[in-house]
Amino acid sequence: MLPFRRRVSRSGVAVAAAALVLAGCAGGAAGSGAASARMSDASSSTSAPDPIAWNECGPNLDCATVEVPLEYTEPDGAQIPLAVMRHRATDPTQRIGSLFFNPGGPGVAATDTLRNMPATAGAPGTFSPDLLARFDVIAMDPRGVGQSGAVRCLTDEQRAEAAGTGSDPAVPGGKPLPELLADATAFTDGCAAHQSIEFLASLSTDNVAHDMDRIRAALGENQITYYGISYGTVVGPMYATLFPDRVRQMVLDAPVDTGLWFGDSLEFLNEVAVASERTLNAWFETCRTEGAAVCPFGGGDPEAAFDALIVALEAQPLQVAPVEGVTPGGMLDGAMVLEAARGLAGDRVTWPALTSALLGAQNGDGTLLHFLWTSITVSPFGVPTAMHEVHTAVRCADWQTLTDVAAHTAAATEVVAAVERIGTRAAYSALNCALWPAPNEDRVTGPLTAAGAPPALVIGGRLDPVTPHHWAESMVETLDSAVLLTREGVGHGSYGTVPCVDAAVDATLIDGVLPADGTVCNLEQPGTTAPVAFAPGGGN
Q1: Exposure check for the chain: N or C terminus, fewer CB within 10 A?
Q2: What is the CA angle 428-433-435, rounded to 5?
Q3: In this prediction, what percent of the chain has a pLDDT beyond 70?
Q4: How far is CA 365 from CA 368, 376, 470, in A?
Q5: In terms of Cα–Cα distance, which of 8, 228, 270 is closest to 106?
Q6: Domain ranges, ordered by start, for the chain
């Protein structure tokens, strides 16, 4: 799905962290209703865009480039290109309209996601045949993402050096604070050197929403239907708040707390760490409950074995030989084990892969675990990949991040004390934004109420590794009109993976029929060593 990562199969041990590609969610005064109105007026005064000139680019796919204003306060000023893809409705006689979607990140390329969707059936956010029959699905790479001028902050050499630099899981942020600050300075200087400050400042979600509306107009549609997952649940409410009359139906899967997103980035990241820790603890508990005969890692005490493995590999990393087409090889240390386990524990489908990988590393073979670690490209915390550069740039354009390093230290102290294993990994995660070179003074932040738009379907996972369930509850409270659907069990994102959820989403987007508020969809308890079977699903 992403140009920066190796494609892996959904089945077998290669399932891995690629299933979490939709995870993660990652200054200036908070926007107000007046700011929202100003931005909406600016868009409405912009001349109507030309119709999109599509070119066929794959089976049932069309591609195009659309020019949009760099800043909507200056609609006739500098323009930037956006990559757009359309999957034509497979049953044109029953076509309803255009379905826009954002697959999250921030930083996941929607065009790559749409192009590869047939190969990722069963992954979060995969559209059903019924939905594909009734809608033209529109994928827009948001500005700064994918083919829409992807942000680059480091050279390939710098990125390789960062990937090869060890991180100490016992130290908040992985390194002493002076080294973290030096890294953040090099990163942000690189961002400013590789693209203009004006472009970096324009990457905020309100501009993404305006870009969507320009494409809507170019398509000749009066309204759009929308599905967003993870960060896409920030884009959707932003669009519906700025343009409520242009929303036909909206589904928000694995929602972000938009109040925290725009107002308190340090608390936001600390709550992500707590959510990640809960899913890792769920794997520990399941392994312990199954017993050593079913889950042999740790011989009945997986937590102790896991902690011992991290300590041992920090003291003496495993040398992993290269395997053609799988891993280039290298060293596997304790910090890499922790990061891989964090990612794999967050998806119930990858639990068997996590068990096998930990057993292998415990027995001196780190090949599988190293492969799984290299497959992870999206993390709520900093990882040395090109994806992380886009992820950071979008977050920094949106977030009200404190420039006082002491505030980051206080938040790091809090998360390390509260979150036993993931806390140090999460500490200082917003430090790049504290030094961000492109302040966005007129960003729109909300509250994102979507007042005047149709009721939204909000889907929250009970054990989501990135967006905790209470964020879904918060979104329902913030939106003017919404219903909550809860998916029990582990995983980030629900549509495309759970039949009960799939039926509710399709009914909402196709027919405008939402489930009862408080509906619950159940999942079969995942196992640590066997593939997971779907439960039939159920009501509340």
Answers
A1: C
A2: 100
A3: 86
A4: 8, 19, 39
A5: 228
A6: 33-148+206-261+449-521
